[in-house]
Design a protein that fits this description.
Shape: globular
Number of helices: 17
Number of domains: 2
Strand content: under 5%
Order of helices and strands: HHHHHHHHHHHHHHHHH
Distance between the termini: 41 Å
CATH class of the largest domain: Mainly Alpha
Largest sheet: none
Radius of gyration: 21 Å
């Protein structure tokens, strides 16, 4: 029987792990749209497809995690291999100057990187003695890592530079090597037969028999369509507005993320899931209307954009984190993992692919025949109002049909 890891040392290791993991993501995800638009001259539809590569990685991830990690190799060794391999692929991306070469390489990278998110969470929850209290504190370092990734790229190069991929690639290799110091986490199903349904989390589909859970899943998928407009289009928008220090300024979103992460337990305890998730969707509505009005906002333009950036914590934590906790509460012990896999597949997989695809299509459809004298190449007011009205429609459906789970109602004071 293995000796339980020293908890203070473990928390430090996991904190560094989360920092590195999200440093990688933050170093390229926000700035890639600017690089593709300004440097490689990709059109809006191509940029949307490029961001959809992450969703393809999320759809492939359950196979890698369910088949390989659970049956054949220790988690820390898989994390090492995925980190190094994805780092090498990331460093090859700047060599790809056409969409036909860049897009497949990016899909390959995402297929290698995305599984580290689920594996890292699973490893952490396995070894933390008090996961419910300690995991959020460890996970908070992910927001710090994202900020550091943005600042790292912004201080060394611009968003238009391919340097962002080299920074992310080097960090990924360091991440892979660091994974080897994590506690040994052997496969849990060595020699066991794992069904396709178990790998994909299909056992959790039984939860759809509950009307409120079904409404929740539908709303989560639908909100992903307007949601990804922010990630796909914000970098292009700010580039056309000629914002300086763009990456550093957008990192305020992660500062907001830390604050609202601390507020989330208070809101859930006081108001329950329906009100908290309602506020999360409502903040997405407010974020897009703020961006829409900023397009011709005059003197208020910068302030409106900062409002949209600072709403990120409420948008993300009150919707996604609260949603994951709701799923965990609705599921029993037998299907808890499958239920989390199902919601991740919807949010980051099919929802992410649909959202990035639509966002790219809308961006391309609203390209101006010729840029304005100020260098604006798109009808940004129409672009931002599209997800604003979409998110508002989802909000109405959620308010009318969703009901708080009875267990949560019974447990609240």
């Amino acid at each position: 029987m293995s000796t339980p890891p020293n908890q203070p040392a473990l928390k430090l290791q996991l904190s560094v792990f989360m920092f590195l993991q999200y440093f990688i993501w933050g170093a390229w995800y926000v700035s890639m749209g600017t690089y593709l638009f300004a440097t490689l001259k990709f059109d809006g539809a191509q940029i949307g497809l490029a961001y959809g590569a992450f969703a393809i990685g999320a759809m492939i991830s359950p196979f890698l995690v369910g088949l390989i990690a659970d049956r054949f190799f220790a988690s820390e060794k898989i994390l090492c291999g995925l980190g190094i391999a994805s780092g090498v692929v990331m460093c090859l991306l700047p060599r790809c100057a056409t969409f036909a070469s860049f897009y497949p390489m990016l899909i390959l990278y995402c297929a290698l990187y995305v599984p580290t998110l689920a594996l890292g969470n699973s490893l952490s929850l396995t070894h933390l003695a008090n996961a419910k209290a300690d995991f959020p504190r460890v996970k908070m370092l992910s927001a710090v890592g994202w900020i550091a990734g943005l600042f790292g790229v912004g201080s060394i190069a611009s968003a238009e530079s391919p340097t962002q991929f080299y920074i992310a690639g080097a960090a990924s290799i360091a991440f892979g090597l660091f994974s080897l110091v994590l506690p040994h986490t052997p496969p849990t199903k060595t020699g066991a037969n794992v069904s396709l349904g178990e790998i994909l989390g299909l056992d959790a589909l039984a939860l759809l028999k509950k009307p409120s859970f079904a409404i929740f899943i539908v709303c989560m998928f639908l909100i992903c369509i307007p949601l990804y407009f922010y990630f796909v289009n914000l970098g292009v928008y700010l580039t056309q507005l000629k914002w300086t220090s763009m990456l550093e300024k957008t990192s305020l979103a992660q500062v907001s993320d830390v604050i609202f992460f601390l507020l989330l337990p208070i809101f859930l305890s006081k108001f329950g899931y329906k009100v908290t998730i309602f506020l999360g969707i409502a903040c997405w509505v407010a974020r897009y209307f703020a961006l829409g009005f900023s397009a011709d906002g005059g003197a208020a333009q910068t302030a409106l954009i900062f409002v949209a950036i600072l709403l990120h914590g409420a948008c993300y934590d009150f919707l996604f984190i609260a949603g994951q906790l709701y799923v965990d509460e609705e599921a029993n012990e037998r299907i808890r993992g499958a239920a989390q896999g199902l919601i991740a597949f919807i949010l980051w997989g099919i929802g992410g692919f649909a959202g990035t695809y639509v966002a790219g299509k809308v961006l391309a459809a609203h390209a101006l025949a010729a840029p304005t004298a100020a260098g604006i190449a798109h009808d940004w007011k129409s672009i931002w109002f599209t997800p604003a009205w979409g998110a508002l429609a989802v909000l109405v459906v959620f308010v009318i049909f969703f009901r708080n789970p009875s267990k949560a109602a019974d447990e609240r004071p």
